[in-house]
Amino acid sequence: MRRRPDRRDGAVPAPVAAPQPLMRWERLVMRRPGLAYPRLQGLIAREAEPPFQALLGAFFILERWGRGPELQIELERALARALQQRLLEDAAELSEALGRLHYQRGDYVQACNAWSQSLELTDDQTRWACLARIGLAQLCFALGDWARGGRVLDEAERHYPRLGDDAYLRAKIGLNRAVSLRATQGPQAAMARLDLARAAAREAGHRDYEAEALWHYARCARDSAAAAEALSLATQAVDLARRCHYRWLQAQVLLLISELHAGIDAVAPAEQALALGEALQSRSIQAAAHGRLSQLMAEQGQLGPSWHHQQQRQRLEAALATLGQTELPARLEQLARFDADAQAAPAAVALAEAAGEAKALLRTLERLGADAGVQGADFAVHLRDAIERARRLVDRLG
């Protein structure tokens, strides 16, 4: 992509590498958020026009604590100020942060607009462009467009020259890669990526992503019919998420824990997840929690509460579907200019990816065949999963 003419001071392009003091400040925010936040809060309160980096640091912390919306108005004002003053790098970073806020809440069109604005304001080589592309990849995954999402992640990695020195972004990309691999190729294909992502999170000192890696390990164990291992990993993940005050992840892991339990033991985790989803204003978490509670109430013969939760789930899912089926796909299609490999990917690469999926599927079917004597719901679930993956592979190969 072409370079944009205006930079922070209107004359000299900002260096790609962050200054050392800024890198140390980011490390403090990641490692000691409880220590950093009061200082940032005081700095913001003292200034009529708070420094951009103070706002961004405070938002990074509050985002994890489930309080990101508290700073939405301040971030929007700061973005308007940066645009007015032609501080385009600052504007790109602020817009990227707003994209994360919208995404967590389920406002996918607004998230898409914010991240695309970041890409329009900054060079491909900047950290903010890398972060924006990761966000757009997440939107693609949310729509089930795994191929495009993977290409957008490729672009994020390809263009950011400092990725080797940026453990936080390596962890973020690795977690998203693992999600894609688990969905398209199965749990075993995701494990190596999870190992790398967890190591990068430890290098960055970012315990939130360590906890997130544990959650993904738990999901892989569940998909592999290792329920006891999945519950152990999920318990570790939710404990670490609580210590980090990472409320979005707490809700996600509690939903998994509810799924791994049965009967009355499954109710409390689902109720806790619902309360967190409401506090986070996250439609997707609320919908999932209502769906789980509806199922559990029905199993206990409580048809009234079950109906209520089912109605709430349908209402929330309808709101998300409206975004996902109308405006958002069209908006993502407009971003094809940022997806440089969409038309150019060689057929050999696509065939190699399909071959990898075929090998993973073959291993799954062989394992299921060896366990053919096993009875019960778990066997049926995994057999249906293998059949569905086979259908997707057939469609892909034509």
TrEMBL record:
Keywords: TPR repeat. TPR repeats lie at residues 92-125. PROSITE patterns: TPR. InterPro entries: TPR-like_helical_dom_sf (IPR011990), TPR_rpt (IPR019734). It comes from the Bacteria. This is Uncharacterized protein.
